[in-house]
Amino acid sequence: MNNPPETSLQSEKALKRLRRRRAADTRFRMYGLAALGFALFSLVFLISAIAWKASGAVTYHVVKTDIVLTPERIAPDGNASPEEITRNIEGFYTLVRDDLFARFPNAGDSLPVRQDFSALVDRLAVLPLARRVARHPSLIGQSVTVQVPVSDDVDLFLKRSSPRSIPFRIGAGAQISPGQGGGMVLTQPDLDSVRATLTALGEHDGVPSVFVTSQGAVARLSDLGDEAASFELLAGDVADFGGTPLKGLIVTVPESRRTISDLQIAWALALRSEGVIRRVPHTSLLTRTDSTYPELAGSLAAIVGSLLTMLVTGMVAIPMGIFAAIFLEEFAPKNRLTQLIEVNINNLAAVPSIVFGLLGATLLLGTFGLPRSAPLVGGLVLALLILPVVIIAARAALRAVPPSIRSGALAVGASRMQAVFHHVLPLAFPGMLTGAILGMARALGETAPLLLIGMVAFVAEVPSSTTDEATALPVLIYSWASNAERAWEPMTAAVIVILLALLVIMNVIVVMLRRKFERRW
Question: What pTM value is reported for the model?
Answer without folding.
Answer: 0.86
